[in-house]
Design a protein that fits this description.
Layout (H helix, E strand, L loop, with lengths): L2 E9 L10 H15 L3 E13 L2 E15 L2 H17 L6 E7 L3
Antiparallel strand pairs: 1-3, 1-4, 2-3
């Protein structure tokens, strides 16, 4: 079966600059492991910068990578997850990308 990789950039701070609780990150990772049986997590932060409605946002982010079967239900799951993450992390945007992968 074809695989698809989902990369999720999770913010380490809210838009107001306050830190996101480590517990929230752990909850998200655990729910993904329970559903998909594995993930890769880069806890070291990456820096993102973007402009929205004239305001610049400088962010510290963590990367979560999940390889799953390339199915419509999985794509729908990640679309719904994005809406959940936007709410839980109190963000304007959560960046999730996906692309096909071949596992050797």
């Amino acid at each position: 079966m074809r695989k698809r990789r989902y990369e999720i950039l999770l913010p380490l701070t809210h838009n107001d600059g306050q830190p996101v609780s480590g517990e929230l990150h752990e909850q998200i990772r655990e729910s993904l492991v329970q559903r998909f049986k594995g993930l890769t997590f880069w806890p070291q932060s990456v820096r993102g910068m973007w402009v929205y409605k004239g305001a610049r946002y400088d962010e510290e982010l963590a990367l979560v990578v999940v390889d799953v079967a390339d199915t419509k239900p999985n794509r729908q799951f990640f679309a719904k997850l994005k809406a959940t993450l936007l709410r839980k992390f109190e963000q304007i945007e959560i960046y999730i990308v996906s692309y096909p992968v071949d596992v050797l």
